[in-house]
Amino acid sequence: MNVSALRNQLNNGKIASIKIMSNEGDIYTAQAVVGNELHTLNQDESGKPWVFHSYIEAKRALSSCEVPIDLETSTVYDEMVNIHH
């Protein structure tokens, strides 16, 4: 889902929340929750995931979305480190 589609879905009230996904190292991506489906957010029409280099960067970029933004970590280590953010 690109940013334009994200805005349309937000305006229609179809997005319940956004999940920031902690991947390997300092790579974070985001997924929009629409019903029971997850849609990876793309910054443009290329189809490549929108990549952030910190949770804070992702949260700032998506702060205008006005839906809950949650962090999903992939490892126990990430969970321990992100407790302090």
Helix % is 25-40%
Tally of helical runs: 3
**Which regions are unreliable across 5 or more consecutive residues at pLDDT < 50?**
none
How many whole angstroms does the radius of gyration measure? 13 Å
Our count of domains comes out at 1
> What's the CATH class label?
Alpha Beta
Instruction: Report the biggest beta sheet as strand number plus sense, adding barrel if it closes.
Output: 4 strands, mixed
- Backbone structural class: alpha+beta
Overview of this structure, please?
InterPro entries: DUF6482. Pfam families: DUF6482. This protein has about 80 residues and is α+β, with helices and mostly antiparallel strands. The protein has a single domain, classed as Signal recognition particle alu RNA binding heterodimer, srp9/1, CATH 3.30.720. Helix content is about 25%, strand content about 25%. The protein contains three helices and four strands; from the N terminus they run αβββαβα. It has helices at about 5-10, 55-60, 75-80, and strands at about 15-20, 30-35, 35-40, 70. The chain has a four-stranded mixed beta sheet. A hairpin with a 2-residue loop joins β2 and β3. It is globular. About 15% of the residues are buried.
